[in-house]
Design a protein that fits this description.
This protein has 401 residues and is an alpha/beta fold. It has two domains: 146 residues, Aspartate Aminotransferase, domain 1, CATH 3.90.1150; 240 residues, Aspartate Aminotransferase, domain 2, CATH 3.40.640. Helices cover 41% and strands 15% of the residues. The chain has 14 helices and 15 strands. It has an eight-stranded mixed β-sheet with strand order 2-9-8-7-6-3-4-5. Helix 9 links the parallel strand 6 and strand 7. Helix 4 runs antiparallel to helix 11, helix 5 runs parallel beside helix 11 and helix 6 runs parallel beside helix 7. The radius of gyration is 21 Å and the shape is globular.
Length: 401
């Protein structure tokens, strides 16, 4: 009898909590339960719509481009639009040669970690933080080293812990600002202190800024605005602010005056060539999305703030739950009192799905050290859906007190 093939350790070790939770959710839906899918930060699943001029550009691009392969680094006109937009947003001057277009930020993370990590290398990541970083670090046999975000201080990064956890194997410091999953917006002071550590140790910062214009309290400060001696890669994309999640467009750009990462860039470029190019017609639509009217973002932030305020109020009124206010991004990261009812935050989320149809993501899926006892929810659903779901959540918590 032919022996079955085994999957690689690397692939079987992956566990992307945000999507893994859809398996028990699908089982609940199959039983006929009404579902509240609050697990994925996809604005377009709710009452946020891709602006029409983006869609019209894509239709025209399919007709008017040659639909052949594009530049492996990204089409020049999109990279120039990114350069212009970054100057408009942050007042920074970058060059098109330093910009790389990717199939969403996720591909950028994968390719960057593939170029940067040898087995045993360490990367500092925020805890809790977006799980793709941990997944790809571990896929390439690196070690995830979380640094705490301080819940009692509105999830600000623990800069002292970043310094304390640096070793001679540390390859990079990841910053996610505005933060997924906490909704925190980091202060200029904290950003500058992280930059100072990076400069002191010659460790690059990977700054994920995909939610940079989704801020409804406080002010966003980009890592790109720091002094030239700080080696940085800024990651951004079109899924969130530009309401194009399914179009899979992202980018990164290097700010590395001293050439610390020259070989990393070449290692990434070799991978970009091997995957040929990012989607060509969608790159044209992405370009136009940076250059056309941006007024839809004001309306998006207005709706998100209203929903964030309501989430903050309701969760702090429900017995057994508490939460910080979310000043940005699309998420809230409440604490749940597990008591004797649930062994873990994942058990809590599974019971919540089973009894109410509300799908949220267990906090330990965002960090094994600093995520337990929490869960992530989204701020995207309209008020009437939030009210309906939170009423069910409140009854659920009261039953289990």
């Amino acid at each position: 009898m032919q022996k079955k093939m085994r999957a690689s350790r690397r692939s079987m070790g992956m566990n992307y909590a945000i999507r893994e939770i859809t398996v028990p959710a699908a089982a609940a839906a199959a039983r006929g339960m009404k579902m509240y899918n609050f697990n994925i930060g996809d604005p377009n699943k709710w009452d946020f719509e891709t602006p029409e001029y983006f869609k019209e550009t894509l239709r025209q691009a399919v007709d008017n481009t040659d639909n052949g392969y594009g530049d492996s680094q990204g089409n020049l006109n999109l990279r120039q639009a990114i350069v212009d937009r970054e100057f408009e947003k942050n007042g920074v001057r970058i060059d098109v040669k330093d910009v790389y277009v990717t199939a969403g930020v996720s591909e950028c993370i994968n390719i960057m970690m593939g170029a940067m990590i040898e087995p045993g290398d360490e990367v500092l990541v925020p805890g809790p933080g977006y799980p793709s970083y941990a997944q790809f670090i571990e896929f390439y046999e690196g070690k995830v080293v979380p640094y705490r975000q301080i819940e009692e201080e509105n999830w600000r990064p623990d800069v002292d812990m970043i310094r304390a956890r640096i070793t001679n194997r540390t390859k990079a410091i990841v910053v996610i600002n505005p933060n997924n999953p906490t909704g925190a917006v980091y202060s200029e002071k904290d950003i500058r202190e992280i930059g100072d550590i990076a400069a002191e140790y010659d460790i690059p910062v990977i700054s994920d800024e995909i939610y940079d214009k989704i801020v409804f309290e406080g002010k966003f400060f980009s890592m790109s605005r720091l002094p030239d001696d700080i080696p940085r890669v800024i990651l951004n994309g079109f899924s969130k602010v530009n309401l194009m999640p399914g179009w899979r467009q992202g980018y990164c750009y290097f700010m590395d005056k001293n050439g610390l990462m020259d070989e990393i860039r070449e290692g990434m470029m070799k991978q970009f060539r091997a995957r040929i190019c990012a989607n060509v017609p969608c790159q044209e639509a992405a370009r136009v999305s940076l250059q056309g009217p941006q007024d839809y973002i004001v309306d998006m932030n207005r709706k998100l703030k209203e929903r964030a305020d309501y989430t903050y109020k309701r969760f702090n009124e429900i017995p057994g739950l508490s939460v910080n206010r979310s000043p940005g991004a699309l998420y809230s990261f409440p604490r749940v009192e597990l008591g004797n009812t649930w062994k873990s935050d994942k058990d809590f989320c599974l019971d919540l799905i089973d009894e109410t149809g509300i799908v949220m993501v267990h906090g330990s899926g965002f960090c094994r050290e600093f995520g337990p006892g929490h869960f992530r929810t989204i701020l995207l659903p309209p008020m009437e859906i939030l009210e309906e779901a939170y009423d069910l959540l409140e009854k659920f918590m009261l039953r289990h007190q």
